[in-house]
């Protein structure tokens, strides 16, 4: 039983509703639907066999446990007895957690995007018994609205068409499946070399979309999409473009000041519904916060501005406090809703503050965060919206010395009061892909911000992954873990993001054990997912059952694609370990999507970072000596404190390149060898010399 259902039944004294097949699943999303009257099946052979045997179409409904509109549709439709009866009579109903099975979600989301021009969750798609889609959409209302049919009307119409024109629907499904398969095919012979022209063109395209008033790129709703500003910082360095640098730093400043950033507890919501970063869609996702932590670290290193460091610390502290298991795993997400209302946990009314704060405290908080009696947020999705709700945003940052203690005491009281509220649902499943993102970000935060707790959290997380999600004897990396059980699914995303995180962790520690694990993951990824003939990486292994299409994903949306992440991570570890075969696989991946880079750079900002890394021989900082000693740590902090994205940091222990292992060791202290290609400058202990080497820009933009 999910927590919301349990709380409601306890309050009303109602007898628990009977469960369906989802009650034995581990996914929090599926468990939320375990007491629906709908006869749900999980994705698998049992449901498919039933559909074939009974000749029924399939309703495939995909979402995730912290999805606000998924909750709305469940409440309106999937908990409705009449709707459930229609589904039982005419359909086989299947629920999928998109975060556990992004491979399944990607196929059917592509179909809906092709046929409707949009997408999102909940995703509801009608399939033939052999899993071919013929109709789909996202949220359907319980009553006809804005020209859209009600969900029950839609079910009735599809059931009628299936009975009377099944052949037409199956033919349409075959045609759409053929189109999906064609889209999944990439002809490597059509690729063309990509280089500085694509990088500069992408930078200009992104800057053209820059909102100079509020920051960010494009219009409302605004997603942070960190790959885009992360690439722009690289491009700003390569081409010495100050406007690109300013655009990113201003965006970071405005996002951190907005309501999308939890001003009390840290951590960022998924996106802003307006163009000012004021009103968030309140759910917090691990992958967003991992990428934004990386972005704010880069912004801090580039600018030296402590406000960016503060945003990074608040984000990391939120994850360690609220999103980390006792064993060191990172949870997936927190919901937008609390007690049925979006944002209720996070918002404040004037009356809330009057009953909590003293007059001076209240005056400071009201001015600083723009609190008004009318409020700035209304949850229009609820039939009885709460009144006067205020999302906290930094409206007036100025503080006098007398006001500082008043603000500190007020915030402490507000945090204590908020902790007594009903907290939003937390999705506590552990995804190796998102954990890889976060462990890498925390590793960098640990060394850049001189925060040993962050570095320790990253290392504990790796230990958890090795113990629970990695089978070393088989070279198998599982995608999901929850309550002692892993789901057996293997995905490119998990391997690629974990590899990237391990490279970050190795460069932050020089611990050869972390590099050794990274080598294992890279080897497994290439063996299981790389296409040596066609180039690029498949999203799934060749033996993954029940997939309509095997795809090579290349879209860097809210999360970077597996191909983009794999390409950049392989380029980095290839430089550290001197593995030309890995560099070749990465370069082949970039070439495969070169037309995409040229024609639509907005779709592939993370792949642009891989292209940027490819364009020049990376600088190598080789720290020779005892990797555990204090002088190594000091040199590491210096190396990480310079914004030079096209560099690698390595020691002389473990599976590093032979050249590094052959460098002369001074047993008394660690020295830095600053190298490019096979040439190194004289070894140094001088941090100024190391910094000067990394700050030196390549000629002519690389």
Proper CATH architecture of the largest domain: Alpha/alpha barrel
Helix-residue proportion: 40-55%
Structural class: alpha+beta
Strand order of the largest sheet: 1-3-2-4-5
When the domains are counted, the total is 4
CATH topology of the largest domain, anyone? Glycosyltransferase
Low-pLDDT runs of 5+ residues are 1-12
Tell me the number of strands.
21
State the assembly state of the protein chains. Answer: single chain
Overall, the morphology is: globular
Mean pLDDT reading = 94
So what's the CATH class of the largest domain? Mainly Alpha
Using the CA coordinates, give the radius of gyration.
26 Å
| Number of contiguous helices | 27
Q: Largest beta sheet, briefly?
A: 5 strands, mixed
| β-sheet strand percentage | 5-15%
Give the terminus-to-terminus CA distance.
Answer: 57 Å
Give structural notes.
This protein has 702 residues and is an alpha+beta fold. The protein folds into four domains: 3-184, Glutaredoxin; 281-336 and 428-615, Glycosyltransferase (Alpha/alpha barrel), CATH 1.50.10; 346-420, no CATH class; 620-701. Helix content is 49%, strand content 10%. The protein contains 27 helices and 21 strands. Strands 1-3-2-4-5 form a five-stranded mixed β-sheet, sandwiched between helices. The protein has a four-stranded mixed β-sheet with strand order 19-18-20-21, with helices on both faces. A three-stranded antiparallel β-sheet has the order 8-9-12. The chain is globular and about 80 Å long. Mean pLDDT is 94; it is low at 1-12.
């Amino acid at each position: 039983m999910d927590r919301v259902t349990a709380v409601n039944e306890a309050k009303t004294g109602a007898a628990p509703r009977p469960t369906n097949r989802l009650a034995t699943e581990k996914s929090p999303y599926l468990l939320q639907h375990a007491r629906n009257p709908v006869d749900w099946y999980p994705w698998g052979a049992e449901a498919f066999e039933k559909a074939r045997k009974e000749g029924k179409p399939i309703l495939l409904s995909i979402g995730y446990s912290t999805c606000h509109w998924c909750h709305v549709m469940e409440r309106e439709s999937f908990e409705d007895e009449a709707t459930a009866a229609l589904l039982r009579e005419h359909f086989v109903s299947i629920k999928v957690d998109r975060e556990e099975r992004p491979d399944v979600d990607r196929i059917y989301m592509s179909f809906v995007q092709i046929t409707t021009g949009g997408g999102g969750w909940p995703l509801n798609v009608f399939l033939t018994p052999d899993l071919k889609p013929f109709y789909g959409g996202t949220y359907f209302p319980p009553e006809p609205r804005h020209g859209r049919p009600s969900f029950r009307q839609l079910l009735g119409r599809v059931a009628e068409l299936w009975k009377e024109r099944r052949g037409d629907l199956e033919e349409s499904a075959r045609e759409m499946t053929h189109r999906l398969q064609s889209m999944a095919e990439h002809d490597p012979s059509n690729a063309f070399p990509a280089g500085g022209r694509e990088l500069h063109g992408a930078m200009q395209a992104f800057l053209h979309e820059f909102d100079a008033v509020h920051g960010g790129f494009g219009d409302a709703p605004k997603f942070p999409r960190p790959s885009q500003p992360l690439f722009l910082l690289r491009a700003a360095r390569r081409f010495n473009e100050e406007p690109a640098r300013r655009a990113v730093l201003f965006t970071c400043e405005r996002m951190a000041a907005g309501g999308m950033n939890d001003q009390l507890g840290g951590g960022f919501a998924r996106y802003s519904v307006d163009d000012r970063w004021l009103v968030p869609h309140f759910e917090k996702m691990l992958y967003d916060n991992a990428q934004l932590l990386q972005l704010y670290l880069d912004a801090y290193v580039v600018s030296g501005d402590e406000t960016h460091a503060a945003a990074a610390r608040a984000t990391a502290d939120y994850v360690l406090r609220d999103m980390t298991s006792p064993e060191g795993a990172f949870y997936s997400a927190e919901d937008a809703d609390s007690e049925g209302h979006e944002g209720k946990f996070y918002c404040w009314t004037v009356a809330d503050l009057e009953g909590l704060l003293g007059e001076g405290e209240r005056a400071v908080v009201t001015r600083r965060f723009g609190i008004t009696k009318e409020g700035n947020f209304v949850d229009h999705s609820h039939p009885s919206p709460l009144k006067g709700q205020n999302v906290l945003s930094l409206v007036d940052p100025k503080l006098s010395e007398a006001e500082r203690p008043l603000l500190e005491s007020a915030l402490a009281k507000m945090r204590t009061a908020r902790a007594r509220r009903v907290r939003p649902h937390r999705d506590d499943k552990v995804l190796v892909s998102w954990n890889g993102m976060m462990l890498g970000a925390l590793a960098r935060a640990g060394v850049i911000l001189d925060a040993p707790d962050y570095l320790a959290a990253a290392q504990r997380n790796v230990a958890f992954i090795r113990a629970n999600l990695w089978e070393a004897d088989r070279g198998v990396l599982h995608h999901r873990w929850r309550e002692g059980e892993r789901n057996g699914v293997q995905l490119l995303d998990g391997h690629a993001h974990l590899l990237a995180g391990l490279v970050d962790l190795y460069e932050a520690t020089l611990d050869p054990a972390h590099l050794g694990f990274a080598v294992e993951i890279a080897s497994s990824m290439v063996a299981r997912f790389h296409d040596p003939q066609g180039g690029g990486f498949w999203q799934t292994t060749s033996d993954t059952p029940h997939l309509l299409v095997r795809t090579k994903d290349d879209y860097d949306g809210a999360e970077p694609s597996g191909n983009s992440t794999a390409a950049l991570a392989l380029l980095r570890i290839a430089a550290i370990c001197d593995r030309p075969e890995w560099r070749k696989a990465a370069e082949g991946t970039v070439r495969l999507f070169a037309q995409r880079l040229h024609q639509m750079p907005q779709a592939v900002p993370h792949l642009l970072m891989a292209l940027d890394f490819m364009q020049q021989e990376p600088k190598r900082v080789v720290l020779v000596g005892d990797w555990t000693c204090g002088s190594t740590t000091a040199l590491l902090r210096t190396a990480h404190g310079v914004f030079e994205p096209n560099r690698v940091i390595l020691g002389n222990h473990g599976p590093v390149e032979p050249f590094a292992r052959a460098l002369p060791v001074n047993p008394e202290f660690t020295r830095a060898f600053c190298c490019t290609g096979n040439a190194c400058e004289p070894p140094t202990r001088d941090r100024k010399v190391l910094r000067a080497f990394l700050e030196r820009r390549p000629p002519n933009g690389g």
